[in-house]
TrEMBL record:
One of its GO terms (cellular component) is nuclear inner membrane. The gene is DPY19L4. Keywords: Glycosyltransferase, Membrane, Transferase, Transmembrane, Transmembrane helix. This is Dpy-19 like 4. It comes from Crocodylus porosus (Saltwater crocodile). Residues 1-36 are annotated as: Disordered. Residues 21-34 have a biased composition (Basic and acidic residues). Pfam families: Dpy19. It comes from the Eukaryota.
């Protein structure tokens, strides 16, 4: 080996410094000669601005057109503009009637305190806290503050806000797909698939005022902002804007829906997995954790110190992640010890989360959502029960496994096959990246089209993990499809419009005949165009037919019942009956009722179960004691429930009551004794003793039988 003479290294270092100084001097001189050197050309800036402007215009236009479409379809379905106020209100069924009735009460309330604390269930309750009526509170304030009393009727203002939020929902999905793929063609395809699969993407057709219709648009905005926030090559101003939007949308989403923290918990699990596998910048993930904590704290204060937020799994998980961060030591260096510590990190977070949640539930008094845990135990076969409420929940279609028709509809619209294709390609790419991270390869700041590694982009990995978790839940509970199916539309549209995804596929296939970049660009434009034309040809005539058909919704028996109550019933009357009917009575007449179609509180569920005993095989004396304990003065029997012929054996209301009361043979292995009493709803119609001693019939039609509950019992032979 030749040894360099002393001073040679110093000489080379001085030459390098002289060269660098010369380069700097030359660059300065070049900038003086040409001031525009190093700046982005104006035509490039104009091109970027035009792309952003037309993309935003397309997103907003899509949302507005969807809102107009919903309004037109609603008008055609219910003939809303040509009906009287009572007939309009009857179109709100179930929980929808309760939410809109409180909106009416809030507009009529003389003070804020009277609006919040109202007498509904024959007792005074904090309606806003008990029933999550913040959307109605905000809508009533906006209606009065904007001076809309002389411009638009309250019902049109209310449903207009909901339809407008659905437009924002679609716009957020458009933007998310656009940000992921880089082309607003993906956003248009997302909106097309969303509208075509409207039956499985939203509940707006069945229940306009439902909490999901108010909350999910804000969650979609949060996801869109989070998608931009997680990108590696985002500038500081855009990152700050996305961070503020994530904060605002997260808190608003938490205020709109009592179960929002469960969906945010799933999102937090996704971010935890990404951070643990070094697929996203740790600093950004922990900033999102801080947003969760801030939203939980502020929500707890403004929701009248809601204990459900303190015992939520989201708070326990985020607190565990914050604690475990302090214990991280050399976990992302690629060594064997770091891999072992990473496994221990998973175990540590899981242990702290479970322990903390257990301690919070032990020391924080709460009753919220206990029935959910009991339901999950029965749903997964961990327990059996004869309880009426649990069995009634198990019979609900939204809480069962999805049917084959659901997958068939998604396949016919072509969204499911493309979603599966995109998911498989992204999963393989993400798996490759995970193995590289385990091997110690650092996270790349930018991923170019030539790289063909779509799994390197953190926002794509987040959506892949999120859709897998939501899809797993949707395979268990059909009601979760309203959270998963919009993701299916968005990811499928992103995949077929993304040149990077096609480039990733071509890298694996090692194409040589055609330049892969050129082919990827061509396919990212040609495939969605072909899909769009096929969807237009097949589904556009169906949508236009829906808008042109005049449907009829008219329930004369219910209208007659409401008119009788408003004309004949005393003002202090309290009505008892099925929760669904009580919701309509509360909305249309304003009279007090004994039960409501709400299932987020154990006391309300128990009250509903007791009132439902009017359809069981129990004595007149037992029913009388139950009704008077809730201060009921009138009883309404529905013929549709009493003589119900359900499609599923054992899921009728009277069957569930017989099982709970031990009046029905369930199967060959276990038998129950029959009751010595007939079914109450049948026997009371016979007008014989002892039923006439307790109840007096005052009104009836083809569907309803109304009885006054006697305060002075006269025994007749």
């Amino acid at each position: 080996l030749l040894k360099l003479p002393s001073g040679t290294a110093d000489l080379r270092q001085r030459k390098k410094q002289n060269c660098s100084e010369a380069d700097k001097m030359s660059s300065k001189e070049r900038k003086k000669e040409n001031p525009n050197l190093g700046r982005t050309p104006k035509y490039v800036l104009f091109q970027r601005f035009a792309k952003l402007f037309f993309g935003c215009l397309a997103a907003v236009t899509s949302g507005m057109m969807y809102a107009v479409y919903l309004s037109t379809y609603h008008e055609r379905k219910f003939w809303f503009s040509s009906r009287q106020e009572l007939e309009r209100e009857i179109t709100f069924q179930g929980d929808s009637a309760i939410y809109y009735s409180f909106y009416k009460d809030l507009l009529k309330a003389p003070s804020f305190e009277r609006a919040v604390y109202c007498k509904t269930l024959s007792l005074t309750i904090n309606a806003v806290q008990q029933m999550t009526l913040y959307p109605e509170l905000i809508a009533s304030v906006l209606y009065q503050a904007s001076g809309s009393e002389e411009v638009i009727e309250p019902v049109y203002f209310y449903i207009g806000i909901v339809f407008g939020l659905q437009g924002i929902y679609v716009t957020a999905l458009f933007i998310t797909s656009w940000v992921m793929s880089g082309t607003w063609l993906a956003g248009m395809l997302t909106v097309a698939w969303f509208i075509i699969n409207r039956t499985d993407t939203t509940r707006i057709d069945y229940s306009i005022p439902s909490r999901e219709n108010w909350a999910l648009p804000y969650f979609a905005c949060q996801v869109a902002a989070l998608t931009g926030y997680l990108k590696n090559n985002i500038n500081s101003s855009a990152e700050s804007f996305c961070y503020l939007l994530v904060s605002a949308a997260t808190y608003t989403f938490m205020m709109m829906w009592e179960y929002s923290h469960y969906l945010l918990f799933v999102q937090a699990v996704c971010l935890f997995l990404l951070d643990s596998l070094t697929l996203v910048q740790t600093e950004k993930v922990h900033e999102v954790y801080k947003i969760y904590l801030f939203s939980l704290f502020l929500g707890y204060l403004l929701q009248f110190e809601n204990p459900a937020l303190l015992v939520s799994p989201l708070l326990s998980l985020v607190a565990a992640l914050m604690l475990s961060k302090c214990l991280e030591v050399n976990m992302k260096k690629g060594t064997f010890i770091s891999r072992l510590l990473k496994i221990m990190h998973f175990y540590l977070v899981f242990t702290i989360t479970v322990t903390l949640n257990f301690l919070l539930k032990m020391f924080v008094p709460h009753k919220e959502n206990e029935h959910l845990l009991k339901f999950l135990e029965v749903r997964f076969g961990l327990n059996t029960t004869k309880n009426f409420t649990m069995n009634w929940l198990l019979c609900q279609e939204s809480l069962q496994a999805p049917s084959q028709d659901f997958f068939l509809r998604l396949t016919q619209s072509s969204v499911l096959p493309f979603y599966i294709l995109v998911l498989i390609i992204c999963l393989f790419s993400v798996t490759q990246v995970i193995f590289k991270r385990i091997g110690g390869e650092p996270l790349k700041e930018t991923v170019t089209l030539e790289d063909g590694k779509i799994g390197e982009r953190p926002e794509i990995v987040y959506h892949i993990v999120h859709t897998l978790l939501l899809g797993s839940l949707a395979m268990i509970l059909e009601g979760m499809k309203y959270f998963w199916t919009p993701y299916v539309c968005m990811l499928a549209a992103f995949g077929v419009c993304s040149p990077e995804l096609w480039m990733t596929l071509f890298k694996w296939l090692r194409l040589k005949a055609v330049h892969p970049i050129l082919l990827a660009l061509i396919l990212s434009m040609a495939v969605p165009t072909i899909i769009g034309f096929s969807l237009w040809k097949e589904f556009f005539p169906r949508i236009m037919t829906e808008l042109s058909e005049l449907q009829e919704f008219y329930d004369p028996d219910t209208v007659e019942l409401m008119m009788w109550i408003k004309r004949q019933a005393p003002v202090a009357a309290v009505f008892a009956g099925s929760p669904q009917l009580m919701g309509v009575i509360k909305l249309c007449t304003g009279w007090m009722v004994t039960s409501l179609p709400l299932y987020n509180d154990d006391d309300l569920l128990k009250r509903n179960e007791n009132i439902y005993q009017i359809y069981s095989k129990r004595s007149a004396e037992d029913i009388y004691k139950i009704l008077t304990s809730y201060k009921a003065s009138y009883l309404i029997i529905e013929d549709s429930i009493c003589n119900e012929v359900g499609p599923v054996k054992g899921c009728r209301i009277k069957d569930l009551l017989d099982i709970a009361n031990g009046h029905m043979v369930c199967d060959e292995n276990e038998s129950y004794t029959y009751s010595k009493y007939g079914r109450f709803c049948h026997e009371i119609k016979m007008n014989h003793s002892p039923y006439v001693n307790y109840f007096t019939r005052v009104y009836w039609n083809r569907s309803y039988f109304v009885y006054r509950i006697n305060t002075v019992i006269s025994f007749q032979s």
